[in-house]
Amino acid sequence: MVTNSFCLKVKMQKLTKKNILKLKQSSTLLINEKCKKLLSQGKKVYQFGFGQSPFPVPEKIVKALQENAHRKEYLPIQGLERLRKTISENLRHKTGVNYPKENIVITPGSKEAMLLLHVAFNGDIILSAPSWVSYEPQAIIGRNKVHWIQTSRENNWFPTAKQLENKIKSIKNKNLIFILNSPNNPSGTICKNLKELAMVAKKYNLIVLSDEIYTDLTFCNKYDSISRFYPEKTFISGGLSKWCGAGGWRVGFFAVPNKLSALLENIKTLASESYSTVNSPAQFAAVEAYEGDYSEYKTKTINILRSVGIYAYNNLKSNKVLINPPQGAFYLMPEFPNKKFKSSTELCERILDETGVAMLPASDFGFSPKKMLTRLCYIDFDGGKFLNANINGKLLDDKTIEKYAPNVVEGIKKLSIWAKNL
After folding, report:
1. Architecture of 27-56+295-420 per CATH?
2. Whole-model pTM?
3. Which residues, other chains included, contact 144 with Cβ-Cβ below 8 Å and sequence gap of 6+?
């Protein structure tokens, strides 16, 4: 006899499978491919859509990769022990929180780490708009329901503690993960109320996933983590892609608190049945990245990003373009308040057609399609040439930016002129 509960379970499985198959390719990757296609057709494109570090990987780290190219053995599922140990020490130094090497998992990019958590976790997910484009699709793959908190420019595009508490109260399922990303993709802003959010998370026994892939690119040079206030149940994800410019190497990590050791075991099992292990040469090279002193490299790249970001902000903000100043990473989130377009997607398409400026619509990041916000990534420049320039630690002047980031200067000018005619 087939029970009603069995029929319901089968129906739900089919429904979630259907939802997974409805997912589209990541918009950040698609905009990169679209720009390359337009460029191959001889069209002028200002590539403000794809968030990839413009800077070369430091030479000593590249050399370490070359010296370990012969490594062909499978490393442990959890990752190279020496690499896990140095990541643990780095996190302790930066956050004051002890994530022992036994609690570190090396993954092919932090994106994979988060996906495995979604698959291993059985509960609901709280996201704040704006959120990175892959958080929600990954939750769908993991069959976890998503609940959104809409934020405001006045609170730097992060939820208030009250908003978080109200959202928790409105959700029936109390097994929850709250995802926080600071500096934020897509807004380029930092969260200034970590302690208050942590207090709410602790009160309601939330799991927090702190996506710290951009935290080494905070313009105030302060590595701040919500784990400092709520270490008991805070995961940390990070990797080499942003601060080190090694996105294509696909080396990320997950730091798991002791209280969530059961989830750690599930993640390791999923890793063993999916990617097996992160490629060996890159793991050995990553040891150099975390053990070596790259403070000068970081200081210089941060100063360049900060200077170019402030240049873009100063030359774009107006009564036709509302925007918060950049505080980290390499993003701005301009708003073009108008009633000419039906959606932010239509807005971005028109801007690309009429100016050559490629951006992503806010609807990709959790906002209503009618919200005329976009993500602008201001890294369309040769990072190698910029790093070799004779510049000091002060905010760079306009002439230097015009010399080393001409595409950013020209693209921002075209966008500003276009916005004035709205």
Report:
1. Alpha-Beta Complex (3.90)
2. 0.90
3. 118, 121, 122, 123, 124, 125, 177
